[in-house]
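Re: [help] complex structure
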Amino acid sequence: MTTIIQDNKSPFSSKFLQFYKDRTLLAILLSLFAVMFVYGIFFTENYLTITNFKAIIRDAALYGIMAIGLTFVTLSGNFFLLSLKETASICGVTFAMGMATGFGSPDLVGNFLVSLLAALSVGVLSGVIQGYFVGMGGNPIVVTLGGAGILYGIGAWWSDNLVINFKRPHDAEWLGTGSFLGLPSITLAFILIAIAAELVLRHTNFGRKVYLVGANKAAGRATGHENFSMAIIVFTICSVCCAFVAVAFVAQMDSAQSNYFSAEFGSSGDMTILVIATVMVGGNSIMGGYGSTLRTSLGAIFIAMVDNMMVLQGFNSGPRIVGVGLMIVFSIIVFGLFAKGSRAQE
Amino acid sequence: MENFFKKVTKDVDLSFAILLSFCVYVFFSLNIEIFFSHNISFAILERFAVLGLVGLALTICIIAGEIDLSIGSNAALCAVIVVKLTDPLGAPFAMLIGLSVSTLIGAIQGFVIAFIRIRAIVITVGTLMLLRGVALLIAEEKTVMLTDFRVPDFITTKVLMYFSPASLTVIFIFICVGIFMRYTKYGREIYAIGGARKEALTAGIPLRRPMVIAFALSGFCAGFAGTVIGLKSGTAQGLGLQYLLLAGTVAAFVGGVSILGGKGGVLGAAIGALTVNFLNTGLVFYALQVHFVQLFTSVLLVIVIVFQTMSRVFDSRQSRKSLLATIDERKTTLLEKKRTVLGK
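Output below.
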């Protein structure tokens, strides 16, 4: 013990300095980015107001919830789903169908609980099926790419690719546009889900298993924790999160269409990629076993902050997507360089 | 006959691909009267010019053991650049610029992957978004259009009944890439790092060179696909062409690549792309909406994945069985030896 302390007197700072000595370019880039960010915070009008901050968290909430669900998948070493927006869209269509038509029975029209349950069960079903294929040994990327096409196709087929409307005084308003204690309910849900997910990952048996299977599949198998059941569970969690976001979004818009989450959604032009970006910007290891949902939530808020700043500065969608894209690539390279030489890489 | 059977079992996935494409073609030929005609063959080859290239791009990446998700964005970027520059500079020069940008992007991606040693899906998700933003930026969030339509007319003229300049060029690219992948040292290196990366690195193959070459090739193919689409329609959008990823993946997997890498080839990519083209062209006659095409393409992908996973599971079971059998054999011989020794 003493010898180690003699060797480097303050291990942290010397390691830190060594890191920056080795990677001057990286250090310059990092500080440049920090300077730009601070400059943006202070020189954007109306940026440092409470209203704006609430708006930022509300923006972050929608894809933050989905990203928290995706974090489970990433942590368990199953990369990510490419079918996030399609799952959300089919669940949204289900929910709107329930609110507008009651699935054919007039008693159920506008019944919030039945519609919610239907949407959630569609989410569970799609998660279980995709998780089953992945658990059997399929590659998550390819399986969910195929799943995306099928889910979108079914959703569009069912809704005839039309917008499904339902009239305004409905039971779901409290979720879509209502607020508690001065906070929009979707923001509250985001905070609650983030706390719950963090507690589950840190303090339950299941949460520790997720880390174990993600960090070392072989060790997991040897100790009796197969990736098969794990894949099904994490995919279901992620799909249910998508379903919940879809329900909240549809309740806010009073309508649903199978294209709602595709095309141009928010800052990214693509919901799926934005959610994956959130997980990555938070610095979770994409190989699994390292990261947390807290990082993901912070990543969501960070992306929303940068995007909001660019909106207030009057940028178009092109530069905004470039900004978010640069952020992702940059954070991947930075975290990759940090992890280089450690066990986290392949 | 035995020879034929041997050939089939040697490469099960390729045989399955040929069988599948044959089935799809025969199905549509029987159901649609004009499907088996010169004009439809020309149309299929025209589609092949785009989809085949994307399938080829993904095939090369998957052979190297990685997957490139940024193909759609790369194609869109190249399409925007080419369409935008064709008016002031002329088509050949615009194509040169667009293709070199795409190839360079691919090469940079490959370099980053080999240098930091991360998985390609990680970095290509980032570049997917980044390149899309760049394409939007260059197009100024509008649809870029050609004013002079001589170029689109030229590349879609009929040559030799079935071909057009576009599809002929694409077939030429296929042959070149096929020869490169099969008979050159650099091509074999790509197979090596895909099939058995640790062994290849231990044997002295550098990771950086094959990775850069594979991703540069895939970037070139994606860019060329974007160029063909852009010049054929005369328009390009920053947000378009994302459907290429699904179609290309289906083509690659139908063509018999394995997600584990090191397997498959250019011939398979061509057959896979043709299968997807048969399906797409056939569905046109039923006047279905776009989402049905996506649905059926995905179903095709799922069928192929299930087949591949099942054959992999079957193979591993088979090898385990044979292993157990050999162990049993050795045991019995040992026992017999023991018995004879003890008997003496």
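The beta strands of chain B are 144-145, 235-236.
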